[in-house]
Amino acid sequence: AAGILKVKRRRNSTVRPTSIDYDARIFSFREADYTVSLSTVRGRIRVPVGVGDYQKQLLSGRKPTSAVVFKTRQGEYFIGIHVDVETPPPDFGEEHGWIGVDLGIVNIATLSDGTAFRGEPLEQTRTRYHNTKRSLQRKGTRGARRVLRRLSGRERRFQQVVNHEVSKRIVERAKVEGKGVRLEDLSGIRDRMHVRKSQRRRHHTWAFYDLRAKIEYKCALSGVPFEVVDPRYTSRRCPICGHTEKANRTSQREFRCRSCGLEANADVIGAINISLGGAAGRPEVALVDVEGIAHSVDSGETESSYNPPSLGCGS
Ligand SMILES: [Zn+2]
């Protein structure tokens, strides 16, 4: 898999266009002091790059030969350094199980083992952003518009931090348990979302794709099998008896099978059905302890394993 690293430059540069591609003739990276050498209209320059532990690990011992330099509207410079990362061959047997991941808004991600990654703190932050935005929009000045653009950038970066953490935990768990990760196909997720404001729907759609991309990428890096399944019927099919009926889903939160009486959290049922292969899957009682999972969710025994941090958003 090819990776791209974004590292922040510290000082101003003479590079003019908003983005410029560099190849081996005009770009080089030095690991000893984490600097890059770049050709510019004013000649060759050497500049330090801000790298975190993750980037250092990826750059270790490599001689990257291409990069892209970006300039943001705020005049900050970023450099994306291309590195080729060897993907470890999956060491999973044919018989490994799957962790199903159901994506949502109240819970960003619900796993087939009943773990929920809560989205509420994130929504609170979004509401704060939203209020700040509204007052800025009313102002309508050039300065206000500039702050607005910066805000939506910060909002996305914040969501990316959360998605990075959630995807990391999901893939780590899959690796430890020797399971693959199954996710629903996201085409059509826009229509299934019960969010009225189109701006919010756009944000959530983007957030789902971002989380999916991060899960897929991390699976590839750690050799964890990854599959996308057809999500049809996953919210209305009983994973124990296979009975499929819209009325099985009694509310946004609850699932009650009208044939066998199974009661469980609706998101967990969705995740279990995804782990079983989605629309193409078959109910498999032996594979999942649905009753136990349903109980642990409803009694609150399953702690949400990740609460996103809240982030202030001063203008
Ligand atoms: Zn049933």
Summed up, what is this model?
The protein is of the alpha+beta class. It has seven helices and 14 strands. The model is unreliable at about 10-15 and about 295-315 (pLDDT under 50).
SSE order and pairing:
Blueprint: E1 2-9, E2 19-22, E3 27-30, E4 35-40, E5 43-50, H1 53-59, E6 67-71, E7 77-84, E8 98-103, E9 107-111, E10 116-118, H2 120-139, H3 142-177, E11 180-184, H4 189-192, H5 198-222, E12 226-229, E13 254-256, E14 263-265, H6 266-275, H7 290-298
Parallel strand pairs: 8-11, 11-12
Antiparallel strand pairs: 1-5, 1-7, 2-6, 3-4, 4-5, 6-7, 8-9, 9-10, 13-14
Helix pairs in contact: 2-3, 3-5
This protein binds zinc ion.
Zinc ion binds at residues 238, 240-241, 243, 257, 259-260, 262.
Q: Helical amount among residues, as a percent range?
A: 25-40%
Determine the oligomeric state from the structure.
single chain
Using DSSP, what is the number of strands?
14
Strand order of the largest sheet: 2-6-7-1-5-4-3
Computed Rg? 23 Å
Order of helices and strands: EEEEEHEEEEEHHEHHEEEHH
Terminal Cα separation, in Å?
39 Å
Mean pLDDT: 78
Can you list the ligands bound to this structure? zinc ion
> Total helix count?
7
